[in-house]
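Me: I keep going back and forth on a fold encoding question. No explanation is needed for now; the record alone will do.

Assistant:
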Amino acid sequence: MPADKRVKDLMKDIFEFPHIPYWFTIRQAIGIIKSAGLEKAPHQIVVLVFEEKYHLVGTLGIKDILRGLEPVYLRTSSQHEHSAQEGDMALSLVWDTMFDMSNKELLQKQVSDILYPIEHFAGTDDHLAKAVYVMLTNDLFLLPVLEDKRKLVGIVTLLDIFNELSSPVA
């Protein structure tokens, strides 16, 4: 990894990412995610979630929405006292109604109930190795970038770092 490469060299503007306020509903978030181009790289689509003063509070991805629509996926296997076959049958019943758009109660939940909270950041002058370490140890696809440890100025993605590191190889 080049010693002179810093997070600021690869960060993207926050406005390159779809973003919504925390009070949006799951239904509204689904519309934003679908308009962001699911066919490109669905696992990389992340919506930034902000509060009133435009402070980043979390991210929202496809996994978060699926978990929000069907809380059974959040349960661990130790919470289920039934056989694997019974579990498969229960999940298939849930699956059949999961995207039933008439289920207004779940679709009207606020995204603040299901978002992935922001807990890790990088500084603009941090070395890319630090960003990679934070992202890998916390299973993150993106990392918010702060200036002076307080002002959000951008986002660095794991894909961009990978592309930067692998460019001499290709």
